[in-house]
TrEMBL record, chain A:
This is Amino acid/amide ABC transporter membrane protein 1 (HAAT family). It holds the Pfam family BPD_transp_2. CDD domains: TM_PBP1_LivH_like. GO terms for molecular function: transmembrane transporter activity. GO terms for cellular component: plasma membrane. It is a multi-pass membrane protein. GO terms for biological process: amino acid transport. The chain crosses the membrane at residues 6-27, 34-50, 56-79, 91-111, 131-153, 181-202. Keywords: Amino-acid transport, Cell membrane, Membrane, Transmembrane, Transmembrane helix, Transport. Belongs to the binding-protein-dependent transport system permease family. LivHM subfamily. Its main location: membrane. It is found in: Cell membrane.
UniProtKB/TrEMBL annotation, chain B:
Pfam families: Peripla_BP_6 (PF13458). It comes from Dongia mobilis. Belongs to the leucine-binding protein family. Keywords: Amino-acid transport, Signal, Transport. One of its GO terms (biological process) is amino acid transport. This is Amino acid/amide ABC transporter substrate-binding protein (HAAT family).
Length: 282, 437
């Protein structure tokens, strides 16, 4: 159960990372900070109307990803585009972006963890222990979003254009695909997905300026296991990692779960460097 | 200029002329502006040059909530000491540096205090991993290092002769004093939930030993990595026959931790005993914490001013700006770290006492300062020691005081038991005085 929540949230976050890598060939080290920004902005938006926590949260769920996407577009225009999306240069640039975002939040928002009230609260009572009902909401919302993203990629014109760019950037450009625009949109979409995950998770945790590091690490684990440009692989790997984390933590120890996840990454890199579902490099 | 002047070394090389030049030229450099007028004034009366205290504070990182209150408490105590004429007639100049609650930066901050700020001594470090990371550097630099950390690392003998903890009782003593009460009133089969690093390990080792001495046993140990953000997955490991849950947690996730514990148990909970660290800087009336009613907490200093409040505590609250509920007087939602921050206040008064007793003039007298601190034996309760009276063991560099056990009733903490200093005494053979200075 706990694993299911982890799995869905992880799937959303890692999907953003995987999209950005798949289409733009950029390893976005600042991805976890978009997650953190989503959570911190959620606190900001819900604090605007403290008397209506439900609507405050709905506002956050809509507005926070939009704000984060806007920040991502700006970062794309100011930094990534100027580096010509060079894979090596962008890794260094996104590390810089990570620190800029993290330290700006520290400066503007402060070092304290702030709680956000869940939009609904009920307790699911099982015979031997209880459970927060909001976690079911997180699972439902994340599942809907995953289906939405899958639909957008496979069934819409934007998805087609995106896949074309992913498949071959030059040819797509030759066929009149506005590659720069697609890149900006994909980067924004990736950031927005992380931000939504952040908003969904924040009532379960608390908004804190250092909270982006863990999801970043887990997303990388998931994306490497699943295959860096395979969306299906990302989602499957998120479930493997999330559920095994929940189950192993429950029956053995959480530390063992982390050890196994890291070991899985090493094994995948040795035996199947393209990931479980990745295609071999062209 | 008197070249033998004991004023801080940074100003030794500065002549009156260059100081005045600086005054005129460096209009933008605030540091020069603050240094120069002070320097000119003290050139005549050397013994009134300020005592520079390096304050290593967790302004950011996982200790930020503690850092905020350590800072307020320290500022209040320094203002009070300066109003009353300073230390040996010299005012305190506080130099604060943030270490990000990070051991590596902690050591760098100590270094910076020694080489750049040239402070007389350093104090205020809280988180045990930072203390353990920074204390060896303080020893190498022969920099007196007064920590306010609770950890057993000072008294254990693991650190060095320059490190003291005179303002707050260590964890080993705290848990030794708690165990008899827990075994006698709550139950003997205990499951411990604690952070998986030095501070938590102190709890694990010494509480386990203390409860076994009372005829109790440990049902399970649940160490939690310090960066954990979600705790639900740990709770199923609590054995069903547990009579008492003993929890202690630190960091930004504490509210989540306690909330999730409530979701897990609902109304069918075993007895719960926590160290108030699990809820420092958190409002006990937060939504989701209703289940805590009827559970117990260790407190070093009662957060809620109850019927047993002393006049010293009243004075301390007023000066720091804390209301009767343990929150800031300017913001009732800003809850203090009341069971820890008094340690800064009391440490500053111990430093004052040590400097005055040793006749300390400047860094050359540091050995005298160390020996004068080691010679102390008791601190009487008073405005200088508002938490209560304490004994001090000069060989272990550690103080020992009273502890409190409070029950949560109507989402407030009410003191139900106060331990004696003897309850928290233990045997060990640490003797820092044998180390060379």
């Amino acid at each position: 159960m706990e694993g299911t929540v982890t799995a869905f949230v992880l799937a959303l976050t890692a999907l953003g990372l995987s999209l950005v890598f798949g289409v733009m060939r950029i390893v976005n080290v600042a991805h976890g900070e978009f997650f953190m920004l989503g959570a911190v902005l959620a606190w900001g938006f819900t604090a605007l109307i403290p008397e209506l926590p439900f609507w405050g949260f709905m506002l956050a769920l809509l507005a926070a990803p939009v704000c984060v996407a806007a920040i991502a577009v700006i970062a794309d225009a100011l930094v990534l585009r100027r580096l010509n999306y060079e894979p090596e240069a962008t890794i260094v640039a996104t590390i810089g972006l990570l620190y800029i975002l993290q330290q700006s939040v520290l400066t503007l928002y402060g070092p304290n963890a702030q709680p956000v009230v869940a939009p609904i609260s009920f307790r699911v009572v099982l015979p031997w222990f209880g459970y927060s009902g909001y976690k079911l909401v997180v699972i439902g919302a994340a599942a809907l979003l995953l289906i939405g993203v899958w639909y957008a990629i496979t069934r819409t014109k934007f998805g087609l254009v995106m896949r074309a760019t992913q498949f071959d950037r030059e040819t797509a450009q030759a066929f009149g695909v506005p590659v720069k625009l697609v890149y900006a949109a994909v980067f924004a979409l990736g950031a927005a997905l992380a931000a939504i995950a952040g908003v969904l998770v924040v009532p379960l945790q608390q908004a804190h300026y250092l909270m982006g590091l863990d999801p970043l690490l887990l997303s990388f684990i998931v994306v490497i296991i699943g295959g860096l440009d395979s969306l299906k692989g990302t989602v499957v790997a998120a479930f493997i990692i999330g559920l095994s984390d929940g189950i192993i933590s429950m029956f053995f120890s959480p530390t063992l779960a982390k050890i196994i996840a890291t070991l899985a990454v090493a094994l995948v890199l040795v035996w199947r460097p393209q990931g479980l579902f990745g295609a071999r490099a062209r | 200029m008197n070249p033998k002047s004991p004023i801080p070394a940074s100003s030794k090389s500065v002549t009156r002329r260059s100081a005045l030049k600086k005054l005129g030229a460096a209009a933008g450099a605030a540091s020069a502006l603050t240094l120069a007028p002070g320097f000119v004034r003290y050139a005549q009366a050397q013994s009134s040059a300020p005592i520079k205290l390096g304050f290593q504070v967790h302004s950011t990182g996982i200790g930020a909530a503690y850092g905020r209150w350590y800072d307020r408490t320290t500022q209040a105590a320094v203002a009070l000491i300066n109003e009353a004429g300073g230390i040996s007639g010299r005012p305190i100049e506080l130099v604060s540096e943030d270490d990000g609650t990070d051991p590596k930066r902690g050591a760098e901050v100590v270094e910076k205090f020694a080489s750049q700020h040239k402070v007389d001594l350093v104090f205020g470090t809280l988180f045990s991993h930072v203390v353990i990371g920074a204390a060896p550097r303080a020893g190498e630099l022969k920099m007196p290092y007064f920590v306010v950390s609770e950890g057993y690392h000072v008294a254990s003998g693991a650190l060095n002769r320059y490190v003291f903890q005179p303002g707050i009782t260590d964890v080993r003593s705290q848990v030794s004093a708690m165990a008899p009460w827990i075994a006698g009133n709550l139950g003997k089969k205990v499951t411990m939930i604690f952070p998986d690093y030095a501070f938590g390990h102190d709890h694990r080792d010494f509480f386990s030993a203390a409860i076994e001495k009372q005829g109790g046993s440990i049902a399970a140990l649940l160490p939690i990595p310090p960066t954990e953000a979600s705790y639900t997955k740990y709770f199923p490991q609590i054995p069903a026959d547990t009579e008492v849950i003993y929890h202690v947690m630190v960091g930004p996730g504490v509210l989540t931790f306690v909330k999730e514990m409530g979701e897990h148990f609902g109304s069918q909970r075993p007895q719960i005993f926590g160290f108030v660290d699990s809820l420092e800087a958190v409002d006990i009336a937060s939504p989701g914490l209703e289940f805590l009613d009827g559970t117990y907490f260790w407190e070093a200093n009662p957060r809620y001013a109850g019927p047993s409040q002393t006049e010293f505590d009243k004075f301390f609250r007023e000066k720091v700006g804390v209301d009767a509920n343990g929150a800031s007087v300017s913001d009732p939602k800003d809850i203090s770290t009341y069971s820890h921050m008094f340690g800064c206040w009391e440490t500053l008064y111990v430093i004052k006492q040590a400097i005055e007793a040793s006749g300390y003039q400047g860094p050359a007298d540091r050995a005298k300062l160390i020996e004068a601190t080691e010679a102390m034996t008791t601190f009487a309760a008073g405005n200088e020691h508002p938490q209560g009276d304490k004994t001090f063991d000069g060989k272990r560099h550690q103080c020992y005081g009273h502890q409190f056990i409070s029950k949560v009733e109507n989402q407030k903490l009410n003191v139900v038991h106060q331990t004696s200093i003897e309850d928290g005494m233990y045997e060990n053979d640490t003797d820092y005085t044998k180390q060379a200075l």
